[in-house]
Amino acid sequence: MKSAVETLNPTRVRLSIEVPFEELKDSLDAAYKKINQQVTVKGFRKGKIPARVIDQRFGRGAVLEEAVNDALPKFYTEAVNEGELNVLGQPEVDITELKDGELLAFTAEVDVRPEIEIPDYSGIEVTVDALEVTDEEVEKAVEQLRERFASTNPVERAAADGDVVTIDLEAKVDGEILEDGVAAGVSYTIGSGELLDGIDEAVTGLEAGGEATFTSELKGGSAEGKAAEVTVKVTAVAARELPELDDDFAQMASEFDTLEELKADSRKRLETTKQYDQATQAQERVLEELLKLAEVPIPEKLLADEVQTRKHNLEHHQLGQMGLDLEKYLEIQGKTLEEFENETSEQAIKGIKTQFILDELVNKEKLNVNQEELTEHLMRRAASSGMSPDQFAQAVVEGGQVPMLVGEVARGKALAVVVEAAKVVDTNGEVVDLEDDEDETTETAAEATTEDKAADKAEEKNEA
C-alpha cells in the first residue's frame, strides 16, 4: 500500500491511498464467505457455493463492493498511522479507481488536530473577589435555618403574606372545566411563587371558606400555555411561627450548645464556600486569559458536530426534564433563535479551543493520570449525574468512555500547571493562595468548557 498526505488547511487533510489488488485477498475471501451464508443456489449446499458460481449468479461487482467496504477501514487506518496524523471524526471517502485484479485507489478527507504553539503563560495575572463574610450574610444563613424549623398553627383570620393556606382549585378554559384542572387540599405558602401567577393576590385577604376567581396562564397539563379562569377556595389558614433565636434553638437545630457557637459555625461554612468559589473564579479567569494568548484553528465539521451535540443535549435532556421545549425556553430567556445559536457556537468554539490547548499542554508537560486520580474524578462525576459510583463506572466502561474521563483529569492537571504559574490577587490587592483548592477546582474549570460526552453517555445508559 502507498499513501500520500495533502494538507488542505490547518485542520483538514486529504489522504491519497493506492492498494495493490493482492492485498485485498483476505477481504475478497471474507466477501465470498459472507455472500455464501446469505444466498441459496440450487444444487449447492448453503455455504459451499464456489466463487465462480457466485460471480456468475450475483456478479463480480457485488463481491468487489463487499470486499472494498471491508478493506477500506483497515487501509485508511494504516495510512493515518503512517502519516502520524491525529484525526478527528470520520473521513469522507471517495473511491477514485477500482481495477479488478490490479488496483484499488481512494482518497479520504478528514479533520485533524491543528498544530498549536503553547504561548508563554507565565505572565498571566487575574483578579478575583476578596474572601469576605459579612455579619449580614451570617444572619441570613441563620435565618434560613430558622425558616426550616418554622411551625404552622391554624388561625381564624384573613390570609396574609407568608401564611400557609389549604386551597381547592378549579380551572376552566373556554368555559369548560379541565379534566386535569381540579385539585383539592393543596397546601400553599403565600408569596412563595410556587403555583399560578395571580394566586397570591387572589387568596390574600380571604378567610377559611372564602373564594376568588382570577385569570392565569397554565404552566402545565393538557392546556399548558393557555389562559384559564381559575377559581380558588380557601379551606384553612395557618400562620407560620419561627422559633426564637436563642441557645435552645441552637441546641434544637444543630450540635452546638449556644447561638454564638452556631453563628460561628455558619461563618466558617460561608468562608469555606467562598474560598471554593474564589478558587473556581480564579481557574476560570486564568483559562480565559490562556485562551486569549493562543491561536487555535477550529475544524469546521468538528464545530458543527459539537454545536449539534450541545443543542441535542439541551433539547432532549435538560429541557425535557423540565417539561420545556426550545421555543418556550427561548421565550423565558428572552432570546431569539439566532442569539441562541450564536451563543451555542461561541460556547462550542471555547470548548474546542480549551480541549486542544490543554491536551497540547498534557503532551508538553508529559502529564499522566494515576488510578487514584481517575477514581476520585469518577466519584465526583457519578455524584453530579445522580448515579451511584458503580452504576456510573459500569455505564462509562460499557460506553467506551474511560479515555474521555482520563482526558478530563489530564486537562485538569494541565490547567493546574498554568494556574500555578499565574498571579492571582483579590480585589483588595492581596495575593490569593489556591494550593488547597487547586486540584478539584482546576478539573471543574477544565470540564466546564470541554466536551462532556462521558456523562451524557452514562446518563443515556442509565435512562435506558
From TrEMBL:
Where mainly located? cytoplasm
List the biased-composition ranges (Acidic residues): 432-442
Q: Where is this region: Disordered?
A: 430-464
GO biological process terms, alphabetically, are:
'de novo' cotranslational protein folding; cell division; protein transport; protein unfolding
EC annotation? 5.2.1.8
CC annotations in GO: cytoplasm
HAMAP family reported in the protein's UniProt record:
Trigger_factor_Tig
Quoted from the entry, the domain comment is:
Consists of 3 domains; the N-terminus binds the ribosome, the middle domain has PPIase activity, while the C-terminus has intrinsic chaperone activity on its own.
Spell out the protein name for this chain: Trigger factor
